[in-house]
Predict the 3D structure of the following.
Amino acid sequence: MTQDHKSGFISIIGRPNVGKSTFLNHVIGQKVAIMSDKPQTTRNKIQGVVTQTDAQFVFIDTPGIHKPKHQLGDFMVKTAQSTLNEVDAVLFMINAAEGYGKGDQFIIDRLQNVNNSPVFLIINKIDLVTPEQLFSLIEQYKDKYDFAEVVPISAKEDNNVNHLLEVLKAYLPSGPQYYPVDQVTDHPERFIMSEMIREKVLELTQEEIPHSIAVVIETIEKKHSDLVHIHAVILTERKSQKGILIGKQGSMLKNIGKKARADIETLLGTKVYLELWVKVQKDWRNKQSQLRSLGYDNDTY
């Protein structure tokens, strides 16, 4: 490690569905944060680590900031806001195709309380707009906050992402390498596996189902050298939702399991037998004891 080594913690904030998790997975080179076109996919702070010879970036992907409708939503918003004065830089990410909205102003108002950390405006999904639209968007946002830098990118198309890292590096303080070279996240594999299962529920179900579920990995057992047996439970709020999740003759649950197993096998590098069950926990998103047992605890913030 060189004497002028840079390192720092960087929070990624923004409205739901602006591409925060897509960006995080892209820069670290593998999936640690789940992705979906449905809002409020991310519920916890997810740390992703990018290590270069002269710098280490510790990115914190936060839940999309939105108006909460239940205690889980309240936890998610407080989780996102809690990072703003704990980091070395803040990336405020917007969706180029959506443009300015009330949700952005809500976030900008909270950015006024950021103490000493530089705040960057990251305009994602620039592949979806024309250069003229992009220029107009930059001018509109520059009038609303004194951003350290404005960087347009497309995380999905790998457009300008490396440039963003170079710009960001210039603002990071000199510091140590916090994590080993081969570590890409601080979350345990059990957490990432539960998120991968939840991602498939988001992908395959509609309406109220996606946000009414949680996933608990109950057991992980290595049967022999090349097979891991995983037993997981999908919690939902109503019996009718349980029926949808299971599907006709178990078809939906089998499809969720098949797709999740493929991702988990890539994560673990071994064959996986994934056993899924569905249980009803009525109104779990508004029960503090249930939220705490699932790792959603506002007392931390």
Q: What stands out?
A: Residues 251-268 form the longest helix (18 residues). The chain has two domains: 6-171, 189-300.
